[in-house]
Amino acid sequence: MHTVVLGTSGTTTADVIAVARGNARIEISGEALSALAAARAIVDALAAKPEPVYGVSTGFGALASRHISPELRAQLQRNIVRSHAAGMGPHVEREVVRALMFLRLKTVCSGHTGVRPEVAQTMADVLNAGITPVVHEYGSLGCSGDLAPLSHCALTLMGEGDAEGPDGVVKPAGELLAAAGITPVELREKEGLALLNGTDGMLGMLVMAIDDLEMLYKSADVTAALSLEALLGTDKVLAPELHAIRPHPGQGAAAANMLKVLEGSELTGHHQDDAPRVQDAYSVRCAPQVAGAGRDTLAYARVVAERELASAVDNPVVLADGRVESNGNFHGAPVAYVLDFLAIAAADLGSIAERRTDRLLDKNRSHGLPAFLADDAGVDSGLMIAQYTQAALVSEMKRLAVPASVDSIPSSAMQEDHVSMGWSAARKLRTSVGNLARIVAVELYASTRAIELREGLTAAPASRAVIEAVRKAGVEGPGPDRFLAPDLAAADAFVRGGGVVAAVETVTGALA
Length: 512
Fold this sequence. Notes:
Blueprint: E1 3-6, H1 13-22, E2 25-28, H2 30-47, H3 73-84, E3 88-91, H4 94-108, H5 117-128, E4 132-133, E5 136-138, H6 147-157, E6 162-164, E7 170-172, H7 173-179, H8 191-194, H9 200-230, H10 240-244, H11 249-262, H12 282-285, H13 287-309, E8 317-318, E9 324-325, H14 333-361, H15 384-400, H16 422-452, H17 461-472, H18 484-496, H19 499-508
Parallel strand pairs: 1-2
Antiparallel strand pairs: 3-5, 4-6, 6-7, 8-9
Catalytic activity: L-histidine = trans-urocanate + NH4(+)
Keywords: Cytoplasm, Histidine metabolism, Lyase
InterPro entries: Aromatic_Lyase (IPR001106), Fumarase/histidase_N (IPR024083), HutH (IPR005921), L-Aspartase-like (IPR008948), Phe/His_NH3-lyase_AS (IPR022313)
């Protein structure tokens, strides 16, 4: 099994994916353990002084003005976890919770939080044991960190609340820790606060969305090329010299991918034959411009994610010179903005893909294809309602593209009077990414069927490779009407599993 070693300098997107989705084991480096011990010594020294220090010897948020005596501080730390574990709604997905816990551990290992080494080790032990705290959909405002979600994770470390075992069964956390031989932690000064105060949930979801979208953008380049081919369009608009004079890198990459897919096709270039066209429709001709803009957005989102992965987000923070200082680094605005930006880009990619699908099904615009790609139009409805489903998904994506980060509701008696709503931005982006995969799957289903209906003309080798692979995956080709949902589900699974890209790359080599 893959092992991820955490040091003091952050982590990588690949490590987040490995832990969240691949169940990679976690080890804490000797460097990180030394940094943890050094920072803890600073916190212990401050805790022994009579002067109040936020998070160490005071209450929290709007209650920070109260000085807490030493005999009440352990109770203070327990209480913040218990009271802040106030989430509601459905359980959040296992991979999101694993990413959330791993990223909080990443910040703890930076040596800037003042958490004891044994607490960090317990966090790693819980993840390695496959124990996943029950975290709820609602509870985070994306400022002062993802408080409620992280509190539910901290509650598990204390042996309280509920968690999911490695078998997927939800049980009391204390039982799961005991079965794994893990001793619950007894939190001390600052530790409860340090376990709650980060942008880890929204960041984890951002990292996974980037990973998914990078694959989906390549897949959408392929389906756009297949639709162009099925519509007998021209590939001349993909020429590198045309994209070099508008040098957006994503646009150039998308055009190059489409050109690779179409190499050797007998279907392209027939737009002047039976139904002459000077130009293809925008949804076909402008595919690289739309997909390219989304790719460039994705590249910026990756920059933000990598900066966050190198960050230590906590308040107060322990500095190398021995100071413990309050700050606002827990504010989720940088992450929230790109989460919203990606939802906008994904919605537009879904929208243009749906327009190409609709064109394939409309006999008045498909240049010789049967209505709805049906076997016997009128008796058969073909893919008519598959496009309805696709349109419904696009419509939802447009609603999900409304930014969450422009919203703010004051909390904590107006102490926390401006929040990021980054968690909400991340949750809606996850839904949007899932919808995009389904939309690409419907275009794949339609375009491959349309190509097979073009008798007498041979598709590009890369296109034929996709058609062969998708048929092997259980997605049937042209024919009389049948129960469509299983075909669409198989196409969706094929897209999500990276099947489109894998099939094409056997012919084209790596896509950009």
